[in-house]
Here is the input.
Amino acid sequence: MDKLKLLKKYWGYSSFRSNQEQIIDNLLKGKDTIGILPTAGGKSICYQLPAMIMKGPVLVISPLIALMIDQVRQLERLGIKAMYFESNSKSPPIQQQIDNCIHGNYNLVYSSPERFLNSFFINHLKQVNFSLITIDEAHCISEWGQDFRPSYRKLGLLQTFFPKTPILALTGSATIEVEKDIQDILKLKDAKLFKSSFERTNISYNILKKSDKYSTLIKLLAENRGSSIIYCNSRKLTENLSQFINLNGYGATFFHGGLNIEQKKKNLKVWKSGDLKHIVATSALSMGINKSDVRMIIHFQFPESIENFYQETGRAGRDKKDAFCYLLYQNNDSKEIKNQLLKKIPTRSEIEDTYKSLCNFFQIAFGEGRGSSFFLDLKSFCKRYNQSINKTRQVIKFFQIAGVYSLMISNEKKIHLNVITSIDHVISYIENRNLAAQILEFIMRKNPYFIDEITILSPHKLCKVFKISFDQLLDEFEILNKRRILDFKIHETDIEIIPLTPRQDNYTIKPVIDLAKKIRLIKKKKIRLMIQFLENDFSCKRNYILSYFGEIKNENCKKCSSYCCNINTAKTK
Here is the structure.
């Protein structure tokens, strides 16, 4: 079956979008390829369609686990066989997953980039005869790109393990510096670059300087009746602003990275279905959200870079109809946002103090710790060492980015159980058959090492199984505690930390300090350019964005909020 017939059969399209067919043709020739297709450019078809033609599965490396899962489900609904490498407690051993990949006749196989930090994983994965390797969100490879992830830099070794397999690097936005990093770090061989225009002709960019942003927001919602996204920089403000919008008679929900999975799904569902027209969100909403009829994007606070602004405004008007983007600001906003963003980058002393405190908290001796798993109760840790929770979270994130720690973060409540009696006593109590005994038996059956090790459970799952409330569940654990069967503790936030290097103090944290210094310089430049974009009324806003990505336009857009509209009007009179 040829390309167009496959496109029609599986995706329902009669023609390709800009550069899609050229990218696919280059890949079918076995050539390394770079594709820069802005939001709504149809990046996924560039590797999903070749997977239906090429012999052997296509490996897709993506930083977004939720997006991987969503794509696998969508492909399965289309009748395309796909899988992803899982890492939860219920998933099969990784060797079994790789065996499934080899023998399962899959068209597409998805993996996170962090997997390639594991030599066992990649040494076994090289047995798979991949027809194509796709690196999605490839801008993450560069320190100059938003969402920089050092794990992406390890992907240069793919050429060593898969020397005959073509590589496709895909991203929605990339400056000249990022393009060069993608080419160099991935060691692409004579890669052809396909770059679609960053221009969104149906979008107008409007910068509004207002003393009262709240009343301006409500006025915009009243004037634009369609669906909208309001972007903020803090989780707390998304919730407060959502409440404010509702109090003013406009239905809104909120979205940020601190919500548990169920709450994220619920809030997205009511917005995507149109039950509530507006959603207030942090940048956590940016990737993987496909809602075509968003008519308006409002940045209530200053975005940290042109890339962020472009990606987030790109959520509007994906149905090709007119859409409107507004950035609201006041006199002191640029200074405040600069201070706020630079504060997120830890100082040398903050890195040193946090690392030393964590080693003491976990009792990690010098030269030890590598590969072990430690659970951090962030509140308890910060209370003991008199540290800010937000700042500590930021520092630990830099340890992850620099490759010192591997992190698994959960924002759900977890219960830690520790059995304090004998197995005979536990079995004897189960014979009572009361609710506490039934819960105890269920936990034992699901956790083979329950008697010997601390067990970490999700209360949500237990409540669902036994059809009880969280408070009722705690009452049953209290009964088990009073019977001296187990101790339990509730943790609001759990961070599982796995050191990737042994404790060597200054030597271990040197890459973290160097990274923080470099990121600070890059952030300063990006913020400076964002402020320039905001405050320069004498250049076309659309043209400023395009030139940032290396695309030059001679004519003004004649519809942004700068004086370019008035200048063009004056010239025609």
Q: What stands out?
A: The first strand starts at residue 33 and ends at 36. The chain has 23 helices and 19 strands. The chain has a mean pLDDT of 86. Residues 506-535 form the longest helix (30 residues).
